[in-house]
Design a protein that fits this description.
By secondary structure, the chain is an all-alpha fold. 66% of the residues lie in helices and 0% in strands. The protein has one domain: Tetracycline Repressor, domain 2 (Orthogonal Bundle), CATH 1.10.357.10. The relative contact order is 0.13.
Length: 202
């Protein structure tokens, strides 16, 4: 859910030259969709940013939608992995608090290109092709599961619903904080969500 630090070398190990190029295009696209939105992400610009010619695109992808689906999947996978890593880095009883603080942080707010794709792209999703929505939906479900596993009552009735509310609050707060042009209101969205999800006396 948060800013992602990638380990490219481990992912590119044992890949062919074509596979490495494919990975590079998807990596660039995963950043570009969060930065510029789906509609603001053109094939020619992506290929140029990846250091490739426009003509080589169709040797890697059947369509622009196929690339966007892979990019949505990659961005979502990176966010889920980052969330799991944050949770694993602290004692279990502190994991939920760590996740909330990281998601609602100034660093995440300022890192739209490498942060959570749901808060960066959520409002655009209803207008995307089915394969793009399918990829995003799968990763959103994983994100909800990561949050649910950090709840003290994980596995008990109501846990899933509680995780749904938490994820909706996190995503919605970040989306609204980025949407407004009033820095004070922007900070208030994040502060209010943080206080609601992890009260000071908890």
């Amino acid at each position: 859910m948060m800013t992602v630090m990638e380990n490219k070398s481990s992912r590119q190990k044992n890949l062919s030259r074509k596979e490495i190029t494919h990975e590079r295009i998807v990596e660039v696209a995963a950043r570009a969709i969060r930065r510029s939105g789906y509609d603001g992400t053109g094939v020619a610009d992506l290929m140029k940013e990846a250091g490739l010619t426009h003509g080589g695109f169709y040797s890697h992808f059947a369509s622009r939608e196929a690339l966007l689906a892979e990019a949505a999947d990659r961005a979502g996978a990176e966010a889920v992995a980052a969330s799991a890593s944050i949770a694993a880095a602290v004692p279990p009883e502190q994991a939920l608090q760590a996740l909330v603080k990281a998601y609602l942080s100034k660093e995440h707010f300022e890192s739209i290109e490498t942060g959570c794709p749901v808060s960066a792209l959520g409002s655009e999703m209803p207008r995307q092709a089915p394969e793009v929505r399918r990829a995003a939906t799968r990763r959103i479900k994983e994100m909800i599961d990561v949050v649910a596993r950090q709840l003290p009552n994980w596995g008990q009735p109501g846990t899933h619903e509680q995780a749904l509310v938490m994820v909706a609050t996190l995503v919605g707060s970040m989306l609204l904080a980025r949407a407004v042009d009033d820095p004070k209101l922007s900070a208030s969205f994040l502060d209010a969500a943080r206080e609601k999800l992890i009260p000071a006396d908890s």
